[in-house]
Amino acid sequence: MGSRTVNIGIGNDKKAVTAMPSYVPSVPTSNPSLEHVVLMTYFSSTEANTIRSSRIPDLGTLEQSLGFRIEDAVDLTRNPLFNQIKSSTQAIADAQFGAINKTLASADNNLSAAIVGSQTLTLKKDTPPNLVSISAGRENWGDSNMADASPRTDISTDDTDEKNQRFERGQTNAIVASDSSDRSKDKTDQKTLRRLAQNREAARKSRLRKKAYVQQLESSRLKLTQLEQELQRARQQGIFISSSGDQSHSMSGNGALAFDVEYARWLEEHNRQINELRAAVNSHAGDTELRTIVDNVTAHFDDIFRLKGIAAKADVFHILSGMWKTPAERCFLWIGGFRSSELLKLLANQLEPLTEQQFMGFHNLQQSSQQAEDALSQGMEALQQSLAETLANGSPGPSGSSGNVANYMGQMAMAMGKLGTLEGFVRQADNLRQQTLQQMHRILTTRQSARALLAINDYFSRLRALSSLWLARPRE
Amino acid sequence: MDKVRDLASKKAAVIFTKSSCCMCYSIKTLFYELGASPAIHELDHDPSGRDMEWALRGLGCDPSVPAVFIGGRFVGSAKDVISLHVDGSLKQMLIDAKAIWF
How many whole angstroms separate alpha carbon A257 and alpha carbon A255? Predict the structure, then answer.
């Protein structure tokens, strides 16, 4: 059915009312049915919005639960049962729905009573009321999906007899029970009862459907978080979540993820070796034994530099981002790793006693690493500047001209080339780190090297612990 | 190759670069930090730049730039220079070639 103009038939006088400029609540007069009509048309008009939103709760939902449309109760006075309903449900109305009553009371006390006089009632106080649904197509109501709240601005009521019937159907069971006994229209009562039952049934089904849907959503959400957790755990355990099943190939294929996994494994092995070293140092093991373990640790360091090189080829920005390190470590990130000079500074006081030669050597190493770091840092800055200049050079002129397109493509090509040199910087930075560690071992004795490695590991362990604390901190 | 050798022998410290190469910029900066004043030859601004680049690659320089010569002898690319610098050899080479004095 299409939209219809408001066409209210009330008993004797059929009136077409389209909109009322204002709603004036008044005590029911000798012709209260007209008052009700006015009420309904008011609700359907746009001007009703202000009052509607402030005072009238979501009558749409209200309707749903009631199982009948409020408009059906329009012509209450025509219903011989009206007074009966009023008396039996007035108390409920007053108790539960002050808001409704306030608005409806003066003009339509009885209407509100009828509304509340139903089995279940849900009232939404916050949403803008969808009063327009009051005027939903009448024919569809009983059987249609109650969730359908598409606003329709037409009220249409047919003859009052049918309205009376619908109103009657909207009554409580008790009222209906007392209703059917003394009436002369038994046949219509039967139809009334059936219709009433159908409406209730439809409303209940709708509620159940909604409940089922919400439950489904909830369980899906739970499942999703569960899956995410599983995936996280699996990643940490080194399972390659990738399309390629071959482990040896997937490392170079997956870039960032593969490297994170490799790094985690490397760190585990590194910690194991450090523990072995610590045990040997504490047990005052001989130099040869210490030397073996120190060499193992150093060789293991070479492993991670090699892995970083492969990863930088695949995804230089992942290495540069430091996302494979913990947050606190990332604080000190320099071109994809630690600063050698910082490491040496850390060790400077912990390696005493040093011979004169060792002291000089250590000092020179500190200076060299600092100089190399400066040089690489300046190169990175120059790269940044150059990249910015490349991208900033826009060419003036009408957009879309072929010259501009060629310029743009040239610009991009040049920028791409510059980005490609980033890998070289990461490689040289790692080279510096590796060389610094190797030179350090050349300067120090075996025992000093062992202590140095333990000290370095202590420092980074504390940084990683700090990261964990930080991540677990209570947040407001 | 001849041009490379020729230019390399002209000064104690010689670096072949390209104007757009930022790693070259880093190596140059390192030399300046050490107090050396190396001769800089930009291959992209030299007419025989392509040949020279080919010659440098032939020497084993990868990437072709920066290519460092000290005392006329080929030292290497960025990686070699940094490694030599960390273990102190670079400074000694420069002193020996009289590129720096301390």
Answer: 6
Other CB atoms closer than 10 Å to residue A390's CB: what's the count? 18
Residue A399: what pLDDT?
58
Tokens of A123: 């009232």
Written in H, E and C, the secondary structure of B50-85 is HHHHHHHHHCCCCCCCCEEEECCEEEECHHHHHHHH
For residue B47, the number of C-alpha atoms closer than 13 Å in the C-beta half-sphere is: 0
Task: Give tens-digit pLDDT for A362-393.
Answer: 999 999 999 999 999 999 999 999 999 998 86
Question: Given CB atoms, is B35 within the 8 Å cutoff of chain A?
Answer: no
Nearest C-alpha of chain A: how many angstroms from B18? Answer: 13
- In this structure, chain B runs to a length of 102
DSSP string for residues in A351-367: S-S--HHHHHHHHHHHH
pLDDT above 60 (res B65): yes
pTM of this prediction exceeds 0.80: no
Write down the pLDDT at residue A123. 41
Q: State both tokens at A354.
A: 């040093």
Percentage of chain B modeled with pLDDT above 70: 100
Taking phi over 0 as left and psi of -120 to 50 as alpha, with beta for the rest, A367 belongs to: alpha
Domains of chain B: 3-97 (3.40.30.10)
Q: Are A96 and A116 contacting, i.e. CB atoms less than 8 angstroms apart?
A: yes
Question: Does the beta-carbon distance from A379 to B23 stay under 8 Å?
Answer: yes
Contacts of A371 in chain B (CB under 8 A): 30, 33-34, 85
Helix axes A256-282, A287-314, angle to 10 degrees: 170
Helix (H, G, I), strand (E, B) or coil at A334: strand
Q: How is residue A52 written in tokens? A: 């509607």
By C-alpha distance, the chain B residue nearest A430 is: B79
The type of residue at B70 is: I
- B19 to chain A, minimum CA–CA distance in Å? 11
Q: Are A188 and A168 in contact (CB under 8 A)?
A: no
Chain B positions touching A375 (Cβ under 8 A) are 26-27, 29-30, 33
pLDDT value for A182: 61
Structure-block tokens of residue B69: 């010569």
List the beta bridge partners of residue B74.
B69
- SS3 of A123, please? coil
Is this complex scored with an ipTM above 0.90?
yes
Check: CB of residue A170 under 8 Å from CB of residue A66.
yes
